[in-house]
Amino acid sequence: MTGLLDLLKPATWYVAVIAAVVLGLHLNWQDGYEQGYAKAQGEGETSIAKLRLKHSQEQQNIAEATAKDAATALENLRTEQDRGDQLATQLADSRARLRKTTDQLNGEITRVTTLYRRTLESPPEPRPAGVFTVGFVRVWNNANGINTSMPAQQTQQAPSGATTAPNGARAADSLDSGVTQSLVLANQIRNGELHSTCRVQLNRLIDWTLNGSN
């Protein structure tokens, strides 16, 4: 029995040594694992913090750029609005000036179409009747872009075989249109105002286009 115990003592000692070594290795591995985990966790948190900071900076840069673009667009819009208001005011002033001229000229129609003098020394007398034919009115209107339809005329076969109207082509052009000098003058004054207004509008549009392209 004593011999068996003597044999077991070295074995027990070896087992104890092995257990201690294993325990030491386990503790070292555990410490290394914990240290590695802590290091990896710290590096990961640092990387995440850097990414969050970078993302935050990018978002701030985007917000600042957007705000700057919006401010620039608003400033440009206000500039265009001011320029548009200025052109509109200039156009309104031009129209008012043209209308004033029209009113002034209309006020002179009666005076310049009712009486006349044969010479500067002669007294004024009623103006002789002036006839404006249908053809005159037609040509006048066509020259101003107004298509005036003429009354249909009955045609007849001429000896030569050509188709003509009674008393010659466009015989109705020779008839009295009933238009007086005052009506012709009033029409011309009105046309002058319209043409001048169109010219002013076109000039303003050209100014707007040229200034906008610069």
From TrEMBL:
<feature type="transmembrane region" description="Helical">
    <location>
        <begin position="12"/>
        <end position="29"/>
    </location>
</feature>
<keyword id="KW-0472">Membrane</keyword>
<protein>
    <submittedName>
        <fullName>DNA-packaging protein</fullName>
    </submittedName>
</protein>
<feature type="region of interest" description="Disordered">
    <location>
        <begin position="147"/>
        <end position="173"/>
    </location>
</feature>
<keyword id="KW-1133">Transmembrane helix</keyword>
<keyword id="KW-0812">Transmembrane</keyword>
<feature type="compositionally biased region" description="Polar residues">
    <location>
        <begin position="147"/>
        <end position="166"/>
    </location>
</feature>
